[in-house]
Amino acid sequence: MKGRKRLSRRTRIIIAAAVILILIPIVIMIWLPTFIMTGKRQTLDEALKWQSERYDTSFYESIDKTDYTVKSFDGYELHVQLLKNPEPTDKYIIISHGYTDNRCGALKYVPMYLELGYNCIIYDLRGHGENDETFTTYGIREGEDIAQLVKDTRERYSSISQLGLHGESLGAASTVTSLKYKPKVDFAVADCGFSDIENVLKGGFKSAHLPSFLFELADLGGRVRYGFSLDKMRPIDSLDDNTVPILFIHGAEDSFITPKNSEDMQKRTKGMSELHIIKGAAHAESILTSPEEYKGYVKAFLEKI
Question: For 39-196+233-304, which CATH superfamily applies?
């Protein structure tokens, strides 16, 4: 009895190529959302060193600090630190840092708010700093975390006369997203936040000469692996009925999250808002590029609310 006829070399090559073509998008779908949603986070020491090399952080050593934790809406524990203003004040600001950074990344804004008469609350965003490792949802869970921090702050410091939010990059996007939960805050400052993560990722793909359809693969992978769709990570959608005053600030030279993101969000919000573009500033560097101009915008905005 004759054995089965072996496939020709050409046929084997075609089959192998077909299998590879099928496997490539599957591998990308599995790997890409992990790359996007679980970036390598900095330690507190690494972040403080980075900050200290770029501006004077000596105030942090001597300022009165109180460390505590806050359980968020799902029981996740956030590490929080109160930086008490040397002058007695009942005004507070919650400052949210950027992606892969930690609460030390918020220190660049602290001297300004101390001078403006605020106690400063800095914390590690979900999956960052001293918090347990977890994936980032680009504002979805992080926005709820901020809403819970607002609630905790109101309960913990009962004599508050004014409470505001300030966020940078992911922190800004999370701050904007938190507004849909109607937190009891008097104002928000959103520095270089994104309106939706899709335009940021597609912009990155374009800069790397990669096809934009990778976003759809990453979105599918995010839903399969983590239960969250990248397509739903849209802080701008939280502004349709927002009445909290928002000050948007963006660096003119920000090529990572372009100023159009802040422009679109300012147009969308229903409450009082301002937008200021800082000339010469790259991503998350506006306050370092033009500190006096930056402080002037914030001070003038606070005087209007």
Answer: Alpha/Beta hydrolase fold, catalytic domain (3.40.50.1820)
